[in-house]
Amino acid sequence: MTDATMAYADGDPHHLRSAVAHVGPASKRIVTGYGFWIFILSDMVMFSAFFATYAVLLGQTAGGPGGRELFDLRNVAIETGFLLASSFTCGLATIAAGVRSKIWFQIAMAVTCVFGLAFLTIEGREFASLVARGAGPTRSAFLSAFFTLVGCHGMHVSAGELWLLTMMAQVFAKGFRADIQRRILCFALFWHALDIIWVAVFSVVYLLGSAI
Amino acid sequence: MSDEVQGFDNRADLAPGDEEEASIGSRLLGYVTGLGLAVLLTATSFFVAGTDLVWQPSIPVAIIVLAIAQMGVHLVFFLHITTGADNTNNILALAFGLLIVFLVIGGSLWIMANLNHNMMPMDQLMRMQR
């Protein structure tokens, strides 16, 4: 019998089974990472609903202030710089975890944490100054959509900060075990994904919004 | 025959966020490249938003194109989502996610603009209700 007829006899006429690289379930690292990737994509779908809301309500200022009067683009540029830098240092932490260097991992994560906190501080002060000027989320539909979208991203960054500190503590206490490495992988995905969403935020909310 | 088929694709899958085996130097270079491109695109975005040098109606389009380009840079250099054979599952999930995102955003904008267009001006509506 030839290989082809044997494949038919096995019920695998198209050699599907032999084309798959490794037989059996994928490694736990791949399954965990893939599952978390699905979560991140669903998170992006949720953000897309907020972006759609913001885009629809962009002009509905109810006679109140619009983006042109409210947004300080210099502040936003500084925020963007901090978040981008923290994404970069998070990448450095991933490399450090890959080569199992505890010192460099903790340093890179600490810098990531500081940049993230600087981002949150600037955002918090912006929100506070908006509310103090009478442009809080209750002022108009435009401002409700603005605070929901940007606030939701800020909440994600805050949650990421807590996760970051947890990972630093876990690496300190338990070292680079396989399960800790998986959590570091997921954390890095989460942090980089937040930066992707921020790209959309500063482009759509601030740069396009300040044209209104 | 079966050896050929085996050689067809014998690389294992990659977890999203993982890179193929590489030295520290080349991995570092990847992140530095990503950072450089991202800074360049961000700076261009902010510059275009505030300049009088370009044709004004083109500015929103330019900002959106720059944002999409920067998201691509982040995906490739920071999240390591590439078109490699070992990344097929991650790309497919991303493609489906993008489909939903475009349906939600495009659909909302389309429907709401259409409703807005068909709606009677507010003062006329008020007069009819009296």
Topology, element by element:
The complex is a heterodimer of chains A (212) and B (130).
Chain A lengths: L2 H7 L6 H4 L8 H30 L9 H4 L2 H26 L3 H31 L8 H34 L3 H31 L4
Chain B lengths: L1 H6 L16 H27 L8 H20 L9 H31 L3 H8 L1
Would you write up a description of this structure?
The complex is a heterodimer of chains A (212) and B (130). Chain A is mostly helical. Chain A has eight helices and no strands. Chain A has helices at 3-9, 16-19, 28-57, 67-70, 73-98, 102-132, 141-174, 178-208. The longest helix of chain A has 34 residues, at 141-174. The mean pLDDT of chain A is 90. Chain B has one domain (10-129). In chain B, helix 2 runs antiparallel to helix 3 (59-78). The longest helix of chain B is centred in the C-terminal third of the chain and has 31 residues, at 88-118. The model of chain B is unreliable at 1-10 (pLDDT under 50).
